[in-house]
Amino acid sequence: PADNTMIAANGFVIELQKDRLRKVGEIAAEAQLVDGGSLGFYTDRVFVDRKNMSLNGLLSFSAVVDLENYVFLTEPVILSRGCFYEEELDKHVGEIRDVLFRSLKKAAQKSVNDLNPLRRLLQDDLYMYLSEHLKRKPIILGVLHAPPTAADAHA
Fold this sequence. Notes:
Elements: E1 12-16, E2 21-26, E3 32-34, E4 39-41, H1 44-56, E5 58-66, E6 71-72, E7 77-81, H2 86-109, H3 115-133, E8 139-145, H4 150-154
Helix pairs in contact: 2-3
């Protein structure tokens, strides 16, 4: 019967007595993630990211960039986990690098001369390309390094 039933939310404190039950309070209760080696509280963002990675994978790129001349000093290294099969990645790696090179030219036009804004620009452009042209929406992790400049040597 309805009078003997209660739908409780996470954190409700319910008192059970012989002839009734009632909500007597609430406590802070958050989602806990059991992660193989740990147990802890995580934000919703962690769950969103993990779900996205499980569905769409991860694509990473790494390169050394000259921020004064807007050129890659190393060929961007592209890695994929759960986004492409190995054969597919081999097929698309040239296109992905082309996107990164075009984004670097765009950064030069916008005078982006700091690693973090440049990394975000490259990641955003790559995400747009992958989602529009290849129908993939992976988490993209970019790692950029810059060699020391003459100004760094005097600091």
